[in-house]
Amino acid sequence: MFFIFGISNGEKRLDFNQTLICPNCGHFGRLEVFVRYMYFSLFFIPLFKWGKRYFVKTSCCNGICDISNELGKRIEKGQTVEIDPKDLHFPYGHRVFKQCTNCGFSTSEEFEYCPKCGKPL
């Protein structure tokens, strides 16, 4: 007799959407909440999960940051929750983008002139 078992990683998008001005890039976007976990499976059937971590992904700049497990568990249970943008701490700091008024090109804050058309930002 033989057994097929394994340990693997899983990721699931939770049923949560919140629109806001992104604290990472400053554009209007949507927050989506995901959970990552490890699981043990026997005959390709997941039996139990552990090591859950919850994180938020923004739709505008694809910024990712962790959220607390308490908040993630409340979202996973379907409770009505609102995430405060001040509580989101992106690992690479805030990315500020400037948009050219002449051609509409978006660039990082280190430029004083638009790299596409040459007009001052």
Structure description:
The structure is a single chain. The protein is mainly beta and 121 residues long. 7% of the residues lie in helices and 45% in strands. It has one helix spanning 69-76; strands at residues 5-21, 28-42, 45-58, 64-66, 97-99, 106-108. The strands form 2 sheets. A 4-stranded antiparallel β-sheet has the order 1-2-3-4, with helices on one face. A hairpin with a 2-residue loop joins strand 2 (28-42) and strand 3 (45-58). The longest helix has 8 residues, at 69-76. The termini are far apart. The model has no long low-confidence stretch (mean pLDDT 86).
Poorly predicted ranges: none
- End-to-end distance, in Å? 71 Å
Rg, alpha carbons = 20 Å
The average pLDDT score comes to 86
Labels describing this entry:
7% helix; four-stranded antiparallel beta sheet; 6 strands; 1 helix; mainly beta; two-stranded antiparallel ribbon
